[in-house]
Amino acid sequence: MNIILLGPPGAGKGTQARKLVDERAMVQLSTGDMLREARSSGTEMGRIVAEVMDKGHLVTDEIVIGLIREKLTTGMAKGGYIFDGFPRTLAQADALGVLLADLGQPLDHVIEMRVDDAALVARITGRSTCAGCGEVYHDVTRPVPADGKCANCGGTTFTRRADDNEDSLKTRLLAYYKQTSPLIGFYYAKGMLEGVDGLAEIDDVAASIAAILD
Ligand code: AP5
User: Measuring from atom 40 of ligand 1, which residue has the nearest CA?
Assistant: First the structure.
């Protein structure tokens, strides 16, 4: 099963993708994570990517489609893929359609995580991530365990993203509404769009997604 999690920054795409990986042996393909890896590579491409991401703009279609193509053509995951943060433009959606068709793979569900913009500032500014395994925490709604160790891997280093600030979030939201939200109509017209209430508790959102997948 291959699915897309669609939603603005902070909607909870990464949080839910990690749950699906644990529970269903699916593979998370997050273009954000791939780009953060590229930016720390020390290459010229990494430097350009870092500048674009920190401002909250979208990286070019060419770069992200190339990253996804590389992952998909090096062997399909048995449990299927969760596309997290991809596609983000109509060009990316078209490219994904072609890639999956070439591989003889279906796109089974497009799940829109519906949230209220007002909740996103608090979610984004309170987020931290385990440097060891990428587990996502929040200062209020999902704090790091009291012993200071990641519940998933026991790591003790937690990082905050350079683009997790109010200024960058404004640009990221604008990019979402201008470049990514047309995908809602695109997949709706294809009869593939399903929605969940992303403002619910994390486990309740997971249950709504499970109801769609099952
Ligand atoms: P990316 O890394 O994809 O970031 P994003 O889409 O902005 O989404 P986030 O990771 O910020 O949020 P999320 O929805 O995963 O929320 P999370 O689960 O962490 O992209 C970053 C940048 O990379 C882009 O700006 C762009 O520059 C570039 N990029 C990436 N992909 C690209 C593409 N395809 N094309 C072009 N450029 C691309 O949750 C957030 C917080 O809320 C956490 O602290 C979490 O604990 C908490 N939380 C989650 N769910 C709940 C809940 N139900 N209740 C309460 N708290 C919750």
Answer: 10
CA distance linking residue 64 with residue 82, whole number of Å:
15
The whole-number pLDDT of residue 5 equals 98
Asked if residue 87 has a cis previous peptide bond (ω within 30° of 0), the answer is: yes
Which protein residues are within 6 Å of ligand 1, measured from CB? 7, 9-15, 31-32, 35, 52-53, 56-59, 64, 85-86, 88, 92, 123, 126-127, 136-138, 141-142, 163, 172, 200-202, 205
pLDDT at 75 over 90: no
pLDDT for the residue numbered 80: 93
Mean pLDDT of 90-118: 96
Question: In sequence order, what E strands does 35-191 have?
Answer: 81-84, 109-114, 127-130, 136-138, 158-159
